[in-house]
Amino acid sequence: MLNGRVYSADHDDPNPGPPPHRTYAELVGGPLDGLLQDVHGWRTEGIDDGVALTTELSRWPGGRALYDPRPGEPREPGPGISCRFHCTGHTS
Questions:
Q1: Distance between CA atoms of residues 37 and 24, nearest Å
Q2: Is 31 exposed, middle or buried (0-12, 13-18, 19+ CB in 10 A)?
Q3: What is the pLDDT of residues 45-78, one digit of tens each?
Q4: Nearest partner of 29 among 69, 76, 72, 80, judged by Cα
Q5: Of 76 and 12, which is predicted with more confidence?
Q6: Pairing of strands 51-54, 36-38
Q7: Nearest to 38 by CA among 81, 89, 86
Q8: Considering only CA atoms, which of 63, 22, 58, 64 is closest in space to residue 40?
């Protein structure tokens, strides 16, 4: 159900898919598995830090799901899907 949608896209957006001119990280595992995180214009250090994304689907509703890149996993220059963020935990 969530695959190919961009995180934070409106749930009833008639076109929730990714615009082709942006760069994305694919979210893997956890409650947001299959969503895309827009990382267009992020510096390498920002991507290395990963993200804490608010979700009602987390272990704690309204909490955050933590996603990080795996060391050594390849990255492709954008646009399109350039890397993957893997679920590493949850926080309230």
A1: 5
A2: middle
A3: 999 999 999 988 767 778 899 999 999 998 888 7
A4: 69
A5: 76
A6: unpaired
A7: 81
A8: 22
Percentage of residues in the chain having pLDDT higher than 70 = 95
Contact yes or no for 6/38 (Cβ under 8 A) = yes
Q: Tokens standing for 84?
A: 């993957």
Element (H, E) at 46: helix 44-49
Q: What is the model's pTM?
A: 0.86
Contact yes or no for 37/24 (Cβ under 8 A):
yes
Asked if residue 51 lies in contact with residue 78, where contact means CB atoms within 8 angstroms, the answer is no
Q: How far apart are CA 78 and CA 57, in angstroms?
A: 29
6 within 8 A of 16, measured Cβ to Cβ = yes
pLDDT surpassing 90 at residue 2: no
- 79, 26, 51, 76 alpha-carbon torsion, rounded to 10°: -40
